[in-house]
Design brief:
The chain is α+β, with helices and mostly antiparallel strands. The chain is 29% helix and 23% strand. The chain has six helices and eight strands; from the N terminus they run ββαβαβββαββααα.
Length: 173
Amino acid sequence: MASEQAMFAGGCFWCMVTPFEELPGIQGIVSGYAGGTVENPTYEQVKTGTTGHYEVVQITYDPELFPYEQLLALFWPQIDPTDDGGQFQDRGTQYRTAVFYYTEEQRLAALASREQVAVSGRFELPVVTEILPAPMFYPAEDYHQNYHKKNPKHYKEDREQSGRDTFISQHWD
């Protein structure tokens, strides 16, 4: 079974796990931090917004079973690609959106998919989600991994309060 990696920043990393899990070809999803200046950052450091890190998910997948373009097609409807100040109730640089690419093929696919979103007519504002080379990835603390399964009540409440699902139904469904 071949595997590749993809990395997406879509605001709170807790909410970016569930759309991708349990799909054929998805081998693993790890919540973490990427793009900042602090080595081995902690959640306490990242949540201040001063490290430059994004909250991200790193997805290991089999491209034969689940092509990268399908990952992109799942990514975009999870976010507000016009918001450069965070996502929904989560504000700050750590909650910005980005597609981080590992290969030239991923970069080209990400650029093409962003252009499709930009010209789709879904949004009045410009799409600001960046397409960037994948930086060093640092896994988040264990209690953040599969948070929705470990703390389902809090996860559900937080997600409902965030406004993410309302936005998704208004702009993507």
